[in-house]
Amino acid sequence: MNEQLSRFSMDYFSLKGKTAIVTGANQGLGMAYAVAFAKAGADLYIPHFTDDIREIKELINAEGKKVSFIQGDLTDPNYRKEVVAGCIREYGKIDVLVNNAGVSKFAHFTEYPDSAWKQCIDIDLNSVYYLSHEIANVMIKQKNGKIINIGSALSFTADKKCPPYTVAKHGVIGMTRVFANELGEYNIQTNAICPGFLATEVNKDLRADPSFYNKITKRIPMERWGELDDLMGTAVFLASKASDYVNGWNISIDGGFTTTL
Asked: Could you report how far apart the first and last alpha carbons of the chain are, in Å?
């Protein structure tokens, strides 16, 4: 027993020498995960859809870490294959995958466009499965790996005007458990991060509406919206050796939002 205790060190939380793929990390919450990994010692490979990569490149380079990019559409099977092949060419391995990329469109259920439903399900749910499936085959050969899926407070509840997003985020939790069950024997751990309401540029207009802002804030026991750095420690933990026996679980980073009625 003493040997088990003595071998633990803070190096368990280090990502030095690791390579992480974070989808959609050129903006939003994905940028926080990617920067956290760089600060912990990892190099990054970033599949992205939109053009602007300047900020995330500067942030990761400032940590003295490498970052490479590949632009495309995660609903395209050929692009997903190239994501995997490109990372292997660049770094020789894939230690961590974060399925962060996602979209949402708000509309009333009875008027929700079929095209928007399909787009959201394809990106927020189907691409998570297919990209993970491709990368799991690499991790199986390595005999190790970490898959981190990104859920939401809406993985456990529902809200109006976002039906496919809610359905997809519920599905991500089920998928996380499936991956954990299927891949655990290969020393691959799969878990989910479920962010609540975080103050970001994307929701700036929503937060400017006192009615909406106060409604949400009153339901958060900590009485504040989260900040990006509230996510970063959990991401590093789930990507690191420190979480080697954590498999198939979701961690809500929501200030207690989902504990309330």
From this structure: 43
Domains of the chain listed by start with CATH number: 11-253 (3.40.50.720)
CA atoms within 13 A on the CB side of 257: 23
* Residue 245 CB neighbour total at 10 angstroms: 6
Q: Which string of b and e fits 177-191 if b means at least 16 CB within 10 Å?
A: bebbeebeeeebbbb
Tell me how far apart the alpha carbons of residues 171 and 165 are, in angstroms, rounded to a whole number: 10
Q: Say how far apart CA 36 and CA 31 lie, in whole Å.
A: 8
Length of the chain: 261
pLDDT (0 to 100) of residue 201:
86
What does the angle CA 48 – CA 66 – CA 31 come to, to the nearest 5 degrees? 40
Residue carrying the six token digits 């504040």: 224
Q: Do residues 168 and 121 lie in contact, with contact meaning Cβ atoms separated by under 8 Å? A: yes
pLDDT digits (tens, 9 = 90+) for 155-195: 999 988 999 999 999 999 999 999 999 999 999 999 999 99
- Contact yes or no for 104/122 (Cβ under 8 A): no
pTM greater than 0.85 (yes/no): yes
Enzyme catalytic residues? 165
